[in-house]
UniProtKB/TrEMBL annotation:
Gene3D superfamilies from the UniProt entry: dinb family like domain
Protein name per UniProt: DinB-like domain-containing protein
DinB-like domain: residues covered: 72-151
Upper classification of the organism: Bacteria, Pseudomonadati, Bacteroidota, Saprospiria, Saprospirales
Entries under Pfam families matching the protein: DinB_2 (PF12867)
Organism: Flavilitoribacter nigricans (strain ATCC 23147 / DSM 23189 / NBRC 102662 / NCIMB 1420 / SS-2) (Lewinella nigricans)
Amino acid sequence: MDHSIKEILWNQFGASIDMLINVILHCPNDYFLTNRRFFYMAFHSAIFLDYYLTIPPEDFSPLLAFTSKVPEDRPAEAIDDLIPDRIYSKRELVDYLKKSRIKCKKLIDALTEKTMNKRFTEGNGPNDMDYPILEILLYNLRHTQHHAAQLNLFIRQDLDQHMEWSFRAGDIIQKV
């Protein structure tokens, strides 16, 4: 795979991870502890960033434990069925995201013409993902940026705080 394409992909994917780290890190502690919707979304973002970077996905081994729960057993603020086994600290979430950031960079750096067409395959069910690696990377980038934007919106609406925009990987991470 062309080096410049990998560099562009990393610059944008890394920037979305940096923005996610930034909004969690700069979220006031009292808000983080009281706004469960913010916490569940931050947790969901960390877990799925790592999951979508795991090839093959059956090798996924999350660094933060969770339990899958049926709808009637989920907290109202949860955004999916993966419920953390406890309330993790901002530092634990940020540390996890930083490890996933490294994992993402290594995956992108290792892409070749052959490996980018390797499959991310969850199973054979109708809703199971079966994407080439390049597509799951782009999907993951969109998913990460989507939730980073939602978390930024919470902070903006509830606390009238503005978070920095990252143009490329590393623009704001050194401040994080």
